[in-house]
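[agent] plan:
  1. take the single chain provided in the ticket
  2. run structure prediction with default settings
  3. attach structure tokens to the ticket
  4. add a short note for the reviewer (M.T.)
[agent] executing step 1
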Amino acid sequence: MLLMLQAFTAVAKLDGMMKMWFSFIGMGLMIVSALLIFFARSKTKGWIRVVLTIVSVIILIYGCGFELVALF
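[agent] step 2 finished; step 3 output follows
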């Protein structure tokens, strides 16, 4: 709990420009995730499809994390 509180106070100290860059990074990661899942579903089969889908979900989670940092 203390670690989460320390992380939140560190994020709260970011200025507007840093939050803007975090937002851009988050949007970029979400776009990469969408393109990767599109490629995985349309062009691949088997275990490669599963691996690309898992990688895409991980990238999406990181993108959402960057967006949450930018939001708060």
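[agent] step 4 note for reviewer: The longest helix spans residues 16-43.
[agent] ticket updated
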